[in-house]
Structure formats: structure tokens, C-alpha cells
Amino acid sequence: MWRFAFNHGLWDPCNVQLSHVFRCISTTDQENALKFAYKRDVKSFLAARLLTLYMARRLFGLDPINVNVKRSEYRRPYLEGELDFDFNLSHNGDFTLLTSCHEMRTGVDVMQVELPPASGSVAGFLLKMKSLFAPSEWHLLTSTNCEDGGRIRNFFRLWCLKEAFVKNIGTGLRTDISTVEFDLSGAAPKCTYPGLVDTEWRFEEHQLPNSHVAAVAWYNPGALNKCSDVEPFQELSPNDLLATLSPWNEVKDHFWSAYCFKDMCPPSARRVLY
């Protein structure tokens, strides 16, 4: 099982470095990257591509030109030619994460702990989201033992776990996530869901810098997933990602100016709650 993280929020690529990145991805990906209105979103898009290429190179020795990522019927990504291998991606805030495994299935989600704009208050925000949670989860979110920071953090912990599970099974919006119920009272999260066999699943929680939380769901069908210490995500630098990648594509002359003219991110009223 592999866990890779890239802090794209801290990434400030120069012309030469961004050119290297663009030369490692397809023309379609180059064009799609520059369609985003803000640098923040360009960087998170490219971070996902770079992590995928890094994974393919490190685990399979594939050069970027030979990496072909497909989508399943349920839009789950998979690496063409590697049927017993699975990987998943998530990005939010400053981080892009990738998890991968052999002969298993994985799902990952990351969120920055923050109060969205126009929510008014933590209590008001949570009330709008009540339908997404089982009664026991709602009790945790409204516990009088927690202040606002603890409540919103528990919200994102539960949200990431639910999303990681749904991304693992690949059903997306067709799953009523209020039926995916998590108990956070033990040493590791415990999930209750119709048909779920507890011994086939393992759920992890991770704390990342700058108030980010993440969750990973691992599924090993028909086999006991033995518990072991949770390994942290390996945080990679831009140089780590690019060092072994061989450029193969051309880039258009205007790519740098198209990137530089974008604002970093939209004006935001979000409040990060530690």
C-alpha cells in the first residue's frame, strides 16, 4: 500500500519547471490545465497528473509517454495493463493525495478544515448538512463537549471517511451517504454499511499540515485485513516528482503567459478553524 502527498499550495513553478511539467503530459491535459480560471486549480490539476506519472514510474518503470489512465464504468481511474493494481486521487485546499495498492482497492479523500462562505455559523452549516449523517454521527457533531473548532473538524473527519468509502466502491452520487455510518470512538474508524464485511475493510485517518484532514479506505475482498500501524503519507517535493520523468511532448509558446495572467485564487470568505 502506497500513500503519496504533494503540497501544491506551496508550489510556485518557474517557467522552466512548468515547461518540464507540460512536456510530460498530453496536449489534451495541457489544454485542460490552462482552462482553469485560477492558478490554484491549474496547480491541483497538474499535481494529480504528476503524482500519477510518479507512481507509474516508481512502481512499474513506465515513462510518461507510456502511461495510459482509463476510467471504469463508474468513473474510477485505472492504469491500463495493470488489472490487479488500483489507485485513487483527491485534492482540496493545499494538498493533492494519491493512494495505490496491488490486489486490493483503495479510496482517498482530503479536506481543509474550514467554514464555507455564507454559512454564517458552524451550527448553521452543520444543520444544513444534517441529512448526510446517521443519528449517532449527528450526536457526535452536536455534542456539547465540543466547541465550534472541534465540531467542524469532526464534520470533515466523517465527510472524508464517507467519501473515501464511496470512492472505493465507485458508486458516487448513487450512494446515500447517510447509510455509510462511522464510529470514531475507537482507535480506528469503524464503518457500518449494508453488506459490509468488517474484516475485509480498513479505514485510516491522517492529519496533514495547515489544518487538513484525510481518510483512506482499503478493501481486500475475501481476506482478513490485518491491523498494523498506520503509515503516514510520503510528502513529495516538485523535484521528487519531476526528477525521474522524461519529457516527450511539445508545448506552445503562450503557455507561460497564459498561466501568469491568472490570479492565484478567487476572493474567499472561508475561515480556517484549527
TrEMBL record:
Its EC number is 2.7.8.7. It catalyses: apo-[ACP] + acetyl-CoA = acetyl-[ACP] + adenosine 3',5'-bisphosphate + H(+); apo-[ACP] + CoA = holo-[ACP] + adenosine 3',5'-bisphosphate + H(+). It is an enzyme of class 2 (transferase). GO terms for cellular component: cytosol. Keywords: Transferase. One of its GO terms (biological process) is lysine biosynthetic process via aminoadipic acid. Residues 11-101 form the 4'-phosphopantetheinyl transferase N-terminal domain. Residues 107-217 form the 4'-phosphopantetheinyl transferase domain. GO terms for molecular function: holo-[acyl-carrier-protein] synthase activity; magnesium ion binding. InterPro entries: 4-PPantetheinyl_Trfase_dom, 4-PPantetheinyl_Trfase_dom_sf, AASDHPPT_N, P-Pant_transferase_sf. Belongs to the P-Pant transferase superfamily. AcpS family. This is L-aminoadipate-semialdehyde dehydrogenase-phosphopantetheinyl transferase.
